[in-house]
Amino acid sequence: MPEFRRLSLLIFLFGIVAFSQENQEKRKLYTTQRIEDAPKIDGIPDDEIWETAEDATNFVMIQPGDGDPIPEDHETRVKILYNDEAIFIAAYLKEKHVGRILKQFTQRDNLEQAELFQIDINTYDDGENQTRFIVTAAGTQADARLTGENQDFSYNVVWDSAISMDSEGWYVEMKIPYAALRFPDKQVQTWGIQFYREINHLNEGYVWNYVNKSVGQQSQYNGLLKGIENIDPPVRLSLYPYLQGSIDRFDGVTESNFNAGMDLKYGINESFTLDMTLVPDFGQTAYDDVVLNLGPFEQVFGENRAFFTEGTELFTKGNLFYSRRVGSRPLGFNDAQAQLLDNERIIENPERTDLINALKVSGRTDRGLGIGFFNAVTNEVKAVYQDTISGENREKLTEPLANYNIVVLDQRFNKNSSISLINTNVTRNGHFRDGNVSAFMFDIYNRENSFNFAGQATMSNVNLPGQNITGFASEFSAERTKGKFRYEIGHEFANETYDINDLGVNLVNNYNNFNWGTSYQIFEPKGNYNRYQIRIFGQHLRRYRPDVTVNTGMGGSFFAMTRKRFAFGGGLNINSEFKDFFETRAVDTYVLYNDFGSLNGFVSSDYRKKFAYDVRLNLEEYFESSQSDIRLSIEPRFRFNDKFNLIYEFVYAYQNDRASFVTKTTDDIIFGNRDQKSIENSINANYNFNTRQGLNLSFRNFWSTATFTEGQFTRLIEDGELQPIDYPVTKANDPDVNFNIWNLDLSYRWQFAPGSEAILLYRNSIFNQDNLSDLAYTQSLDRLFMQPARHNLSLRVVYFIDYNIARNIFKT
What we know:
Layout: H1 2-16, E1 29-31, E2 33-34, E3 60-63, E4 76-82, E5 86-94, E6 116-122, E7 129-136, E8 141-147, E9 150-152, E10 160-166, E11 169-177, E12 191-199, E13 204-207, E14 223-226, E15 237-250, E16 253-267, E17 272-278, E18 344-348, E19 355-364, E20 369-378, E21 381-387, E22 393-399, E23 402-413, E24 417-428, E25 434-445, E26 451-464, E27 467-480, E28 485-494, E29 511-521, E30 529-542, E31 549-562, E32 567-575, E33 578-580, E34 591-593, E35 596-604, E36 611-622, E37 628-639, E38 644-664, E39 669-688, E40 693-716, E41 722-724, E42 737-753, E43 756-770, H2 777-785, E44 790-798, E45 801-802, H3 803-811
Parallel strand pairs: 1-14, 2-4
Antiparallel strand pairs: 3-13, 4-5, 5-11, 6-7, 6-12, 7-8, 8-9, 10-11, 12-13, 12-14, 15-16, 15-44, 15-45, 16-17, 17-19, 18-21, 19-20, 20-23, 21-22, 23-24, 24-25, 25-26, 26-27, 27-28, 28-29, 29-30, 30-31, 31-32, 32-35, 33-34, 35-36, 36-37, 37-38, 38-39, 39-40, 40-41, 40-42, 42-43, 43-44
């Protein structure tokens, strides 16, 4: 079988890659010491205990330059102390011109335009997985989990910090409890550590341990932290009980709701943590950016629920976990209408399944083995039908009780390489549909850190009543990762039965694709540029069965950033004809689109200024065809002061004369020439009283129309060609669409204690969809405002309880 030959090739390539890796740069060493009396975290590091700690000094530039020593008038010193509860950090950040320090007030994890001090801690010193803690000159906290170069700011833990400022500069004090870290169970700890200072008004950044930007990843250049010994950390148990009440009014009907539940974090040991959500409620998650979707694929949304974004770096390996599957639309939702009997109507057909509970266990051993386990259970869902004559009701199961599982094993070695195994499983009660996916992954660097080899082999299995379907997919890439000139090649494959959509998302399968690329970039300022990159790339897309060419294309791109932080860039692509096997909504059938080219460009001004802007333009033109596309985005932003910031975005898109799917009849697949235009307006405004209290306004209006040209309907014939056909349009089958949606969120957030917050949220939403595609934008708005609006007011209070603090209180 070709699938097994491909898997054998990947394993062979994995076997010939060298496993050894040495960091050629000499690492700085900081030795800390134990203390009995902890310093006061007030941002003024003048406690006598700090005088006993050594200084981490001699910072060097990482951006825009490479290794230049920090100037004397910006001297930076860092001290670290520890006890059995936490580590303590003090940073002395000298500044000659204190009045120039940027210090915009923001809420947690939102950095915007503020100078900052950052510490990265890698408790396993594996060159890959580390935790980042940031404090800005305004006092805002941010924390993230890092995997390579990827930052996950949805990671949130409870720690303490404070800042102060005087004529000499500004100062930071931090207390990071061991409850916020995972570390090996050893008497003597050796951690990787890095300090970073960003001097925003100078557009400069400095690190403690030198980073060679032209080789490998920044996480592989940490210094060493030693001296932490025989620590006896307290029990890691945190509770997050919540109360939430809401009032909802829609179409004259008012409903109220009250919920209570709790999240729990428990440190099983120093390395592994259990996270649970009990009686979860996601009533205050952000609105999805819904658009008019006329394509063959589902619209994929980002995750807005904190439980599914925090600490999930292990579970997202291999891109097999799309968390929105948990609690998504029932499998039988769309079939409910087809189940109607004579004289019946649907009185209830829920669009979402309810999450009963969820948990995840994750961590890493002292030998670098990461282990993750995820489980979630959703309740059954039923549609309710009512007989219009007798008044009797009947029920139809649209989604049974379902169990979602993920198991991950991820072995890190040589500070930059890994092999991983992952299995996802969805089991539904009864004879419905079950899914199981297993994958093997590798990510290997050679000894010199100059080449990376990465790949993945995935098997999928879907168990349907009376049918078992197995699929296979693989991918492999080789990339030069050293120097200014780099290149890469890659291959992706999936057979026609590959399906991971029970817990993951794959929009297409049955492909056999090849890609390549080469680039040139600078790592130090040159002329007027702090950095720039030129890239050339290409692709050849094929169908696996039947083995036919789908598309061949190549292009280039350019990105540059000037010394004054003005960024610009763009790209050009040329593509052969494209065989679209999915627009037809039929198996092994395609529609043929002509050769086409695309051009894009953008400019982005300096965000440090009060007024800044982003402009993006994308053009697409089909040769020997009237089909074309244009998309324009304009995003101005204005910072009124350090507390008030406003961002407005306008997006215009127009697609002309695209041959698009209309419907399928008994004998034919009907297409029509479609014009589609969209206008999107959005506003995001923030007023922050301080770093713990703030108001946020989020508004979005999206309007789109799709109009099929009268008399230009066709039917699909052989070789993807379209033949004119007389297709009568009636009110019942009119494919034209007028789509308009309006969402407004106004929230007040107050962090009244560490880890504890109250959120008061008002929501207003309106939606309309009809066939009046000839309406102008203002006319469509008039029809939108004729629809009933949903008004929702909710208050959610979450309180953080640390087991150790609560125990001491009760003892007292």
